[in-house]
Amino acid sequence: QSALTQPASVSGSPGQSITISCTGTSSDVGGYNYVSWYQQHPGKAPKLMIYEVSNRPSGVPDRFSGSKSGNTASLTISGLQAEDEADYYCNSYSSSNMWVFGGGTKLTVL
Amino acid sequence: QVQLVESGGGVVQPGRSLRLSCAASGFTFSNHGMHWVRQAPGQGLEWVALIWYDGSKKFYADSVRGRFTISRDNSKNTLFVEMSSLRAEDTAVYYCARGTGNQFDSWGQGTLVTVSS
């Protein structure tokens, strides 16, 4: 299974909005509404931020939102804050009971 | 609260075996599928394996199928992965993660496996 495609890096200033894309195929992102997003700070475990394309777990700020169109999913963070600086990974369920991650995107808050 | 604690990592020679454990607490372990996810140094996340809540089904990434075996002991709230024929490219931090639906909603802190002679 091939990794999903994410931009290596994105950046934004505090208060701005950014969007991270995640492109797969019809066998993963496009075929199922099982896209999730994870935030990982250096040296820490990943944390679930979005599940099933657009749902937020309890405790995740509503500044984080997710969407999907065709084979591409997106994570948008509005009102950027310094603590949002981290690596972000998308994940999708894939056919044959497998899961595939994106390569990760490093978010820099300027 | 949900707690997952991995153990068993270390330095191992290529071709040898190693077993990792993940002790779970704070939730009904036997109600959840459990995953292993790994992260090579400086690299991204890679899904490794899933075991169903009752252990009846197991699924593996192509990169580890035939070499890794996932298992669980619901009486002891513990998840395992037995890794054999280890290669340098298996060097990574190994995380256990709770499955809820098709996402990983809780993660352990990880245990580092280094495959080196």
Any overview of this molecule?
The complex is a heterodimer of chains A (110) and B (117). In chain A, strands 1, 3, 4, 7, 8 and 9 form a six-stranded mixed sheet that branches. Chain A has a three-stranded antiparallel sheet with strand order 2-6-5, with no helix packed on it. With 110 residues, chain A is mainly β. Chain A has strands at residues 9-12, 18-23, 35-40, 47-50, 64-69, 72-77, 86-94, 98-101, 105-109. Chain A is built from no helices and nine strands. Helices cover 0% and strands 45% of the residues of chain A. Chain A is globular and about 40 Å long. Chain B is mainly beta and 117 residues long. Helix content of chain B is 0%, strand content 54%. Chain B is built from no helices and eleven strands. Chain B has strands at 3-7, 10-12, 18-25, 34-39, 45-51, 58-60, 68-73, 78-83, 92-100, 103-107, 111-115. In chain B, the strands form two sheets. In chain B, strands 2, 4, 5, 6, 9, 10 and 11 form a seven-stranded mixed sheet that branches. In chain B, a hairpin with a 4-residue loop joins β7 and β8 (78-83). The model of chain B has no long low-confidence stretch (mean pLDDT 97). Chains A and B meet through β3, β7 and β8 of A and β5 and β10 of B.
Chain-wise SSE layout:
The complex is a heterodimer of chains A (110) and B (117).
Chain A: E1 9-12, E2 18-23, E3 35-40, E4 47-50, E5 64-69, E6 72-77, E7 86-94, E8 98-101, E9 105-109
Parallel strand pairs in A: 1-9
Antiparallel strand pairs in A: 2-6, 3-4, 3-7, 5-6, 7-8, 7-9
Chain B: E1 3-7, E2 10-12, E3 18-25, E4 34-39, E5 45-51, E6 58-60, E7 68-73, E8 78-83, E9 92-100, E10 103-107, E11 111-115
Parallel strand pairs in B: 2-11
Antiparallel strand pairs in B: 1-3, 3-8, 4-5, 4-9, 5-6, 7-8, 9-10, 9-11
